[in-house]
Design goal:
With 102 residues, the chain is mainly beta. It has 2 domains: 33 residues, no CATH class; 68 residues, SH3 type barrels. 12% of the residues lie in helices and 38% in strands. The strands form 5 sheets. It has a 3-stranded antiparallel beta sheet. A 3-stranded antiparallel beta sheet has the order 9-6-13, with no helix packed on it. The protein has a 3-stranded antiparallel beta sheet with strand order 10-11-12, with no helix packed on it. Strand 11 and strand 12 form a beta hairpin. The protein starts with a strand and ends with a strand.
Amino acid sequence: MENTYPDGDNYVCADCGYEWPMAGNAQGDDNADAVVKDANGTVLNNGDAVVLIKDLKVKGSSTTLKMGTKVKSIRLVGGDHEVDCKMDAGNFMLKACYLKKV
């Protein structure tokens, strides 16, 4: 919003009262510039649909994500597991090397 202002080490929104650190903004810009590619080398973007290319066991659970499962509306995030997604089995963070763009 246009009614934000700096307050110490934070930005503050005058409309809703939400505060966030100024340092967090710089980190978000770095992650936005990162290019994430699927198993075939195709560039992934936020909102893309992907398919799992192999069965993935969920750590700490007896659940297995099956090969061929389609995932809609992915969200790219920074870190080791680049893709955040919602599936019928729950919310998961996945590595892009196990996905193929549809």
